[in-house]
Amino acid sequence: MAHDERFLLLRSRFRRLAAAIVASFMGWYLLYVLLSAFARGFMAQPLFGNVNVALVMGVLQFVSTFSLAWCYASYARKTLDPLSAELRAEADQAPHPPGHAAVRPEPEARARAEDAAAERSPRPADPFTAHERGASVERPRDTERGWPGVRPDPGWLQ
């Protein structure tokens, strides 16, 4: 998959987008900082009332941050996400060589693998109570499988 030209196109589009957004933000921020440090007279010029150039440019820093975030999300939704979804769907459908697990195993297969791993390695003792009593005590698990206090993957995170 890493050599697929669609994947390479996706990576290059993302890199160009990220570089353009970072350069835009850093350039605008650097301009603001340099003007504040070296052009104090310009930044102190009142525009109306007690509002000066520095205050307006400071507020525009927030506006530019949100607009760059919106531009990124919009471009990603229209250009990057469809290509990414196509590649992901193709990767999920691709056959895997024998002996290799799928990129994202099914929940049942993942549960079996976790159970097998838990059987191979014993759980460590609870460090907060075991040393007080001088013994290691196994606490009951909060969920069907997994560590205490950790909920299983709800599935929508995939």
Description:
With 158 residues, the chain is mainly alpha-helical. The chain is built from five helices and two strands, in the order H-H-E-E-H-H-H. It has helices at 5-38, 40-43, 53-93, 107-120, 130-133, and strands at 46-48, 51-52. It has a two-stranded antiparallel ribbon with strand order 1-2. A hairpin with a 2-residue loop joins strand 1 (46-48) and strand 2. Helix 1 (5-38) runs antiparallel to helix 3. The longest helix has 41 residues, at 53-93. The radius of gyration is 27 Å and the shape is elongated.
Quick structural summary:
This protein is mainly alpha-helical and 158 residues long.
What is the strand and helix layout of this fold?
Layout: H1 5-38, H2 40-43, E1 46-48, E2 51-52, H3 53-93, H4 107-120, H5 130-133
Antiparallel strand pairs: 1-2
Helix pairs in contact: 1-3
From the structure above, extract its key features.
mainly alpha, 158 residues, two-stranded antiparallel ribbon
Number of DSSP helices? 5
In spatial order, strands of the major sheet run 1-2
Sketch the topology as an H/E string, one letter per element: HHEEHHH
Radius of gyration: 27 Å
> How many beta-strand runs?
2
Fraction in helix: 55-70%
Oligomer: single chain
Structural class given helices, strands, pairing? Answer: mainly alpha
The overall average pLDDT, rounded, is 76
| Terminal-residue CA separation | 19 Å
Give the biggest beta sheet. 2 strands, antiparallel
Strand content range = under 5%
| Global shape | elongated
Residue runs with pLDDT of under 50 for 5 or more positions: none
